[in-house]
Amino acid sequence: MTTDFRSELLASGLLVDTGVDGLYLRSGTFESVVRGIDDLVTSAGEDQHASVLYFPAVTPRLVLERSGYLRSFPDLLGSVNVFAGGDDLHAKLLERLEHGENWAELLTPSDVALCSAACHPLYPSCSGRLPAGGRRFEVFGHCFRHEPSLDPARMQAFRQHEFVYLGDPDGAIAHRNLWLERSAGLLSGLGLAVDAVIANDPFFGRTGRMLASNQRSETLKYEIVCAIDPDAQPTAISSSNYHLDHFGIGFGIESANGDAAHSACVGFGVERITLALLRTHGLDPDTWPPGVRSRLWP
Questions:
Q1: Per residue in 188-198, pLDDT tens?
Q2: Are 276 and 282 in contact (CB under 8 A)?
Q3: pTM for this structure?
Q4: Which of 15, 86, 87, 252 is 20 to 30 A (C-alpha) from 234?
């Protein structure tokens, strides 16, 4: 069923295949839905008085190390390699290109990597002591995760729209709980059949299985899921996460009382929400229910 939906999206021109699984061009119609979702999420967070930041698709490689992403998700990350040689190395590269051989191994890792979570580039900029009451941010970010798939809801390149809190534990938990309820209402208000479930991140390896178990037992992560594919498990289209003091310690961020800051975030997967809407209401947004259209494009 997943590949059937993918075929429909490609045939309609909403997505355009690039020849790499999980990597698509998006049509103007698809992007108009994404913009409507972004505007709706922004309006839902107006009372947060959050600082707004837009992040590019690349981040300092150091962020992967200090955030713990390299340790926990090595199978998902992407490093940016560059050509750093002279004429001799260039000649070798061209020779390999001509013979269809592996030229990429002649490249050198750069100081940047592909961003895998929209909020991660935020934390280095918050090092030091936070004001009383903490800080709130609205974040837009391009993300990459290396998990090629024919499932259109599992793209390698996608975007996240987040609201992040940094401060004390009570404030972080309150932020997570507020947005868990708010995101469920926002998405169900678009006519989507959603449910909130306890979840865990896809940590890598044997140690990762223990981390995932701990994350679930401490109810640190909730996902809002929707059945984009009726024959498969529901897909997460939003998540609300309490990070404890993980990023506070990793990036030297202190709450107003001097303790390591706690953090929480809510993330909206705008491509996945768009796909859920297309699956639920049809491939032509002009025919969607008036109530849905008025919320996305008031």
A1: 999 999 999 99
A2: no
A3: 0.95
A4: 15
